[in-house]
């Protein structure tokens, strides 16, 4: 890759990059934040999704839609199936049975994958994991460049330009030539977000993106996600950060025992929960002092 030595920055001059570039997936290509509630078509449509591990039912007949520009937070106790549900959307986990569509295109039907290209699917359905999954032998900018060159087959020059923009967008452009071991957890997670955005996904899935972070790093990552929300990025977020879910979500789905037992607006689910398990979860969260 055409990168200079550590300390001198990437070849492309920083002043050639817009101060606040917006991901290509933003609701408004002109870069204006979306202020209207999402009313677009379903980007992700899931019906009848079930998944078992070693005979134990983890997801039981799940139905869920995520509309264009919508932010859906998945809440629930550990082991409730939230992370598995996300991993089924891009077929990192194969459902036992389901109907899954991405922007109207069939992805999974019955008990088999029907999407034409799984690599392309995982490009269109971006995923940010708990543990970053950066290549340890590559710098921050190389991680973002390589993803584009391998998955999206873009030129190195184009990939480098996009990487510089996105690292600046998530606030780690000053760490472009740092290796993962030289970065804090929050910095690594922001690089992982930039890498996912570089592939121009239709939807971005976050699997507990702050669970491995200290409070300061958590605030940094949540700020980035908040910024993506302001620009209309379609997202599903597994999180235990209830106040953040309240602030950022258009809709919250509460999972328990492998089923979505309650969903609605943040006010409906968090202020007036109807299910006893939802009530107990929220009471335990408040009682923990978090």
| Beta-strand segment tally | 11
Supply the number of structural domains. Answer: 1
Euclidean distance between termini CA atoms: 44 Å
**CATH-level-4 superfamily name:** P-loop containing nucleotide triphosphate hydrolases
Uncertain residue ranges: 4-35
Mean pLDDT: 87
CATH class descriptor name: Alpha Beta
If you compute it from the alpha carbons, what radius of gyration comes out, rounded to the nearest whole angstrom? 19 Å
Structure classification: alpha/beta
Helix-strand pattern, N to C? EEEHEEEHEHHHEHEHEEHH
Q: Bin the helical content.
A: 25-40%
Shape designation:
globular
> Looking at the chains present, what oligomeric state does this protein adopt?
single chain
Q: What percentage of amino acids are in beta strands?
A: 15-25%
CATH architectural category:
3-Layer(aba) Sandwich
Question: Major sheet, described briefly?
Answer: 6 strands, mixed
If strands are numbered along the chain, what order do they take across the biggest sheet?
7-8-9-3-10-11
Q: What is the third-level CATH name, the topology?
A: Rossmann fold
* Number of continuous helical runs: 9
Structural summary, described in words:
The chain is α/β, with parallel strands linked by helices and 290 residues long. It has a single domain, classed as P-loop containing nucleotide triphosphate hydrolases (Rossmann fold, 3-Layer(aba) Sandwich), CATH 3.40.50.300. It contains nine helices and eleven strands. The protein has helices at residues 82-89, 118-124, 140-152, 156-169, 185-198, 215-230, 242-248, 266-271, 276-287; strands at 42-53, 56-67, 71-75, 97-102, 105-110, 112-113, 125-128, 203-207, 235-238, 251-256, 259-264. It has a six-stranded mixed beta sheet, sandwiched between helices. A five-stranded antiparallel beta sheet has the order 2-1-4-5-6, covered by helices on one side. A hairpin with a 2-residue loop joins strand 4 and strand 5 (105-110). Helix 4 crosses helix 5 (185-198) and helix 5 packs parallel to helix 6 (215-230). The chain is globular, with a radius of gyration of 19 Å. The chain starts with 41 loop residues before the first strand and ends with a helix.
């Amino acid at each position: 890759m055409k990168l200079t030595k550590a300390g001198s920055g990437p070849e492309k001059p920083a002043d050639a990059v817009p101060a606040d570039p917006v991901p290509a997936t933003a609701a408004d290509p002109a870069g204006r934040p979306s202020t209207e509630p999402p009313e677009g078509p379903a980007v992700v449509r899931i019906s009848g999704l079930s998944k078992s591990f070693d005979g134990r039912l983890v997801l039981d007949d799940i139905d869920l839609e995520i509309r264009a520009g919508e932010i859906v937070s998945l809440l629930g106790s550990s082991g409730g199936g939230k992370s598995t549900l996300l991993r089924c959307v891009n077929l990192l986990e194969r459902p036992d049975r389901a109907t899954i569509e991405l922007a109207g295109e069939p992805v999974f039907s019955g008990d088999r994958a029907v999407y034409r290209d799984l690599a392309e699917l995982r490009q269109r359905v971006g995923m940010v994991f708990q543990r970053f999954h950066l290549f340890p032998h590559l710098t921050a900018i190389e991680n973002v460049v390589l993803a584009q060159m391998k998955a999206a087959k873009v030129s190195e020059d184009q990939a480098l330009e996009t990487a510089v923009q996105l690292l600046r967008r998530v606030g780690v452009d000053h760490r472009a030539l740092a290796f993962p071991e030289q970065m804090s957890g929050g910095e690594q997670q922001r690089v992982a977000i930039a890498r996912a955005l570089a592939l121009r996904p239709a939807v971005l899935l976050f699997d507990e993106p702050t669970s491995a972070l200290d409070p300061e790093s958590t605030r940094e990552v949540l700020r980035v996600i908040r910024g993506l929300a302001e620009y209309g990025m379609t997202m599903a977020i597994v999180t235990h950060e209830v106040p953040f879910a309240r602030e950022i979500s258009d809709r919250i789905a509460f999972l328990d025992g492998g089923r979505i037992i309650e969903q609605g607006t943040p006010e409906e689910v968090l202020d007036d929960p109807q299910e006893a398990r939802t009530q107990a979860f929220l009471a335990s969260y408040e009682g923990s002092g978090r």
